[in-house]
Amino acid sequence: MTNQFLLLVAIAIPLIGAVVTALSGHNRNLRDSLMVGGATLGFIAVLSLLPSVLDGSVLAVNLVTMMPGLSIAFAIEPLGMVFALVASGLWILTSVYAIGYMRGAQEKHQTRFFACFSIAIFAALGIAFAENMLTLFIFYEVLSVSTYPLVAHKGNEEAKRGARIYLGLLIGTSIGLMLPAMLVTWHLTGTLDFQSGGILQDNVSRGVGAVLLLLYMFGIGKAALMPFHRWLPSAMVAPTPVSALLHAVAVVKAGVFTVLKVSIYLFGLDYLESLWSSDLIMWVAAFTLLAASIVALQKTNLKARLAYSTVSQLSYITLGAMLASELSIVGGGLHIVMHAFGKITLFFCAGAIYVAAHKTEIHEMDGLARKMPITMGAFLLGALSVIGAPPLGGFWSKWNLMLGAADAQHSIMIAVFLISTLLNIAYLLPPVIRAFLLKPADGAQSKPGIEEAPLFCLVPLTLTAIGTFVLFFVADPIRGFIGTIFGSVM
């Protein structure tokens, strides 16, 4: 089997898994076993591509050329490889978790849920391995559409309204802003291929380039820059496994991954730095980063607080891209990995709390650690990683982003990162403090003993929490691998 064929197989496995899941829905044990097996096989297929990328081999497949400069094609570069490994690896744990959650919460329409979930991973891998902007755009839209039924899963009016906002904003920004930017790019350059150093500098004036940057950055709605962020908290009506998919595995990571790809391979860092609009987007990202944290502080519902936390954390990566420094880009790539593990742990824990204790509000969590010590211990690790405390992975991504700000001579952005970290502490630690240090409310816990969520929920959240710790010690190889996009190991 050639590596080119294996690349196509890796992308296709989740799509095949969706079909198999739908066909085996009559037997839930068989369906769930096949789903986890497919997720495992998908990760193995993606992982098997890594040695060729490490060796510097060029893996590219052109499926169809529609006209000069417009083709559906796939290729692997280090940043895409990292995103694909994160998405396919966490797919396994999220699948296992979803089985425990969906059964524990007695959710309906589980077969439809798991089939759409697999299609979303298929779209995420297509985005990760897209060789050009057209291919990325197609899979970007597939991701939006395939996750709509997941957001609307409960079928009540609240879920339908949240799903309409979700799809409306994502499709509206991509069709209304990003697609016109792509058409102009193709018209002026004759291509939409991702190229080292970018394709715009020698073909587009700075004035036009500045407008294109605005269209791209606001058109990538999945990156949740304000004011196009409301889809993300609106999607919190979905079951918790969907929240994990949205916030850690696929959707938001596809957004910020696209931000990095466009910045590096369409604009190029030198050209990007010369555009006045890059400073504007930088300040919008800084505002989003801080404002979303302040909103998170005011939320008493745990999932809503975590949703606004994600809005804030995504802007770390957009801000890093606009700094146009190699160090900040690497920091942004690292943050995709570190935030994925930290935030998925937090959402796994939120879902476990709902399944086991039927609690959703932060004030209800007083003394909860006495009943759910493993879950709350994992929540603490996830929170500290998102905060950026050593020895957890989030420390290194934030450190590299601040180094990038210093390298780009934007000292005020270092202050923005530091203030945001203090806000992270203010909104992420209170649930832990209440759970460990406060006494349960009178009559809130009448039964003695431990009452954790089902094992299928408990094992994934434990593993992702451990992952936040392990990533602290393996961050340097990941950092060096991402750095090879600039031609050398950093």
State the separation between the terminal residues, measured CA to CA.
33 Å
Please indicate the percent range of residues in DSSP E strands (runs of 2 or more). under 5%
- Spatial strand sequence of the major β-sheet: 1-2
Q: What count of helical segments does DSSP give? A: 19
Unreliable segments of 5+ consecutive residues: none
Q: How much helical structure, as a percent, in the residues? A: over 70%
Shape estimate:
globular
Q: What is the number of strand segments?
A: 2
N-to-C order of helices and strands: HHHEEHHHHHHHHHHHHHHHH
Radius of gyration: 21 Å
* Overall average pLDDT: 89
Main structural class: mainly alpha
The main pleated sheet reads as: 2 strands, antiparallel
Multimeric organization: single chain
In a nutshell, what does this entry contain?
Keywords: Cell membrane, Membrane, Transmembrane, Transmembrane helix. 72% of the residues lie in helices and 3% in strands. It has helices at 3-23, 28-47, 50-54, 78-104, 110-128, 133-151, 157-189, 206-219, 231-234, 240-249, 251-267, 269-273, 276-298, 302-322, 326-357, 373-387, 394-407, 411-437, 455-483; strands spanning 60-67, 70-75.
Task: Give the helices and strands, then pairings.
Elements: H1 3-23, H2 28-47, H3 50-54, E1 60-67, E2 70-75, H4 78-104, H5 110-128, H6 133-151, H7 157-189, H8 206-219, H9 231-234, H10 240-249, H11 251-267, H12 269-273, H13 276-298, H14 302-322, H15 326-357, H16 373-387, H17 394-407, H18 411-437, H19 455-483
Antiparallel strand pairs: 1-2
